[in-house]
Amino acid sequence: MIRVSIDAMGGDLGAQPIIEGTAQALEAVRFEPILVGRKAEILDILAPKYHNAVRIVEAEDMIAMHDAATDALKRKESSIFKAVDLVAKKEADAVVSAGHSGATMSLATLKIGRLKKVHRPAIATLMPTKIIDKHTLVLDVGANVDSEPKHLFQSAVMGQAYAKKLLKLDNPRVGLLANGEEDSKGDKLVKDTFAMLSAIRKDGFNFLGNAEGSDVFKGGFDVIVCDGFVGNILLKTSEGVAEAIFSVLKNSAAKSPAALLGAYLLKGAFKTLKRQMDYAEYGGAPLIGINGCAIVSHGKSNAKAIKNAILQAIRFVESSVNSEISVYLERYQSVEKGI
Fold first, then answer.
1. Which of 310, 284, 313, 312 lies closest to 23 in space, CA to CA?
2. Which of 91, 112, 171, 277 could form a disulfide with 292 if both were Cys (CB 3.0 to 4.6 A apart)?
3. Which of 212-226, 249-263, 287-301, 318-332 has the lowest mean pLDDT?
4. Do 1-118+289-319 and 119-280 have matching folds?
């Protein structure tokens, strides 16, 4: 049975949605949840019928969002340290946290360790597209803000492997985020990465070339690669735009009877749009490239998001995607080294 370590204390909304999400996941699939946090508080929230189904690991300390990520390494009694440590010690197969994302990534990378040949793990997230139920996997969206071509190259390889194993795509279409689709576009980082990815096309790697920002949402690419600085801005901007769209629609409908009628008639379409753009549907973002599984969830995750993050962690472990990544990195090592 797959064991999932869950940081019960780290989210912005407290322990309630995390524990409720764990209970919802237990109703959906069979697994062993390990809740890490203040035992008395966890038991006070957790419904009695789940008490025998959940293991609790006591952790009095909690890494707050304003704390430095480097503090997490010193605070060994914190919920996130102990949650990650369970995976490092092979007492759990995956970790899920809605807490301090920097602390989660740092601890996962240093405690669990990287896969062989991986220079830097990358955070991947699914972005909605105009095609219903079609998404674009974007990485890196925040793990590395000072990337080199070899890091983006590996992100593309890891993204392709993830899309094959988790998204069930036979031949994922990979793009490199740039300021234009022409081969000549981009800064030195993009141009050097472009050359490396072009070199493995002949080996069956489906690299389509440069992708513009708008391509993220069109559905023409399955995987789009960028450095963590650009990716994080893309992610946060997308979240802001989605929030603004729904605020405008809501305010417009409230001010006009005609607009309200139109909104009612388009109720189904709006519901689909909201589902496509709701981060709770995806649960969290996997840290790809570590020798295990870590899912980084949004700080404001509700119970639904936590449930989906746990289910995503279980699918990740079951997929054996890490073995797939190792095979591809070994195959393309000569290109990465410039041979």
1. 310
2. 112
3. 249-263
4. yes
Report the SS3 class of residue 6: strand
How many C-alpha atoms does 332 have within 13 Å on its Cβ side?
27
Domain 1-118+289-319 indexed as CATH 2.40.50.100: no
Angle between helix 188-199 and 149-165 (nearest 10): 50
Class assignment of domain 119-280?
alpha beta
Contact 78, 61 (CB under 8 A): yes
Q: Which residue, among 244, 304, 218, has the nearest Cα to 17 in the 3D structure?
A: 304
Q: What are the tens digits of pLDDT across the range 59-81?
A: 998 888 888 888 888 889 999 99
Three-state SS sequence of 50-83: HHHHCEEEECCECCCCCCCHHHHHCCCCEHHHHH
CA distance 311 to 39: 23
**Cα–Cα distance between 336 and 339 in angstroms, integer?**
8
